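During the first year of the project, the team set up a workflow for recording each protein of interest as an amino acid sequence followed immediately by a discrete structure-token representation. This format lets reviewers and collaborators read both layers of information side by side without switching files. As required by the reporting guidelines, we include two representative entries from the current panel. The first entry is reproduced here exactly as it appears in our internal archive.
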Amino acid sequence: MNDFQERYLKVESGIARIDADGMHYKNLNALLRSLSSKGVEKIELHNVCGQRYIGTGLRDLTIEVHGTPGNDLGAFMKGPNIVVCGNAQDGCGNTMDEGKIIIHGHAGDIAGFSMRGGSIFIRDDVGYRVGIHMKEYQDKRPTIVVGGTAQDFLGEYMAGGVLVVLGLTLHDDLVHEARFVGTGMHGGKMYIRGEVKNPASDVEVTDPGIEDMQLLRSLVSEYCSHFNSDVDAILAQGFSKLVPVSKRPYGKLYAT
């Protein structure tokens, strides 16, 4: 173990513990890659404060983050489970391919940007343009479950996958105020618990069917397993299903 690792890294009972206090994000991610290549199965990160790209490109390990990770948490990742014991900043799950991100707090803008596989579970609210350009790839179907509500342009240009918003942080009327929900959406589906006040003209709002409710029960059950919530109480409230009106919403703008 070199002096750098001696200062920041401890390994006990098969768990690597890193004190990220003051560590540059490049050094932190280099250390994560090194540990991953050596077959370490679990890494605890402590005193994280804004370090970017945690988990980027990594495979098959568990990373537990204590603190607030910076932008692009889990970007391009290919299998890890990342648990954030707090809030996350913008771009978590950017173009992720496989794995799972569980956030015990809020997440910022563009969570799940161009996500093409894996799943993200966020306990509370999210920012703008969440799920933008999500896409399905071969047998992969990305999933985002948001416990609270979202800001404008939810599901913008969404091309595939499943996006669920539970509204657990709203008042009893369960009205989602986000504007332009589903703008440019041309694939996938959204399920929103409560009323969608401002859906875009690109989407159709319908009631979920039997298969939809089966899918929702599965996803809400997993959400509740992470955050200790009541599945039946959540599912007792009505959901809206949003699907695209067209697979080419802007086709007439570029072709005749």
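The second entry, processed by the same pipeline in the following quarter, appears below.
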Amino acid sequence: MKPYLKWTAISVGSIVAIAHVGVLGHLIRREPDRIQVPTINIPRGTPYSSYKIEAGKDGYTIEYKANDPAILESQRSLSLDKDKKGLFGGGTEQRREWRRDQYTAEGVRNMGGAAVDGEGKSAKDIECIVADAGARSQGAMAGSAIAAGVLVPAVINIPYVGWLAAGWAALLGNNIGSSAGSLVNSAISDC
């Protein structure tokens, strides 16, 4: 055998032997396979948020509800049965009240949106009625003040009926101011 073939065989054998020792060392030190769990970034919401996470070998799903529960309920009831037998005879009083309110998580009472109450009025209708009442009141005060400053001094000096005409002038200012306040409110508040 030629010397260069001998050294080539020894070199190749040494490389294969060292590689086998390295592979065996790697296999011996290798840790068992771990299941890789995905990193899930859960959204940060309000303190009332809820999460439902389902994970499997095919993937995962997240169900996220912000502000859960969105509506909190409060129920109150009062029952009073009173049988009063006193000095002048007896009397009975029976009162039953039941109230159910809904609140948001911030403590604001739910007015029901477009829901209709027992009288057939929606929350928007009630809001418009309240706004109209306030506008009429403010308009009546302004109309009375203007009438008291302008009309009343002009008519109070009429002989015999000046005091009566001054009252009529104040009432006229009140009525005109109330109508004007309602008209301005209907133009501004979309009612």
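For the second entry, the following points were noted during internal review. The chain has three domains: 38-68, 70-110, 116-191. The CA atoms of residues 126 and 132 lie 10 Å apart. Both points are flagged for discussion at the upcoming steering committee meeting.
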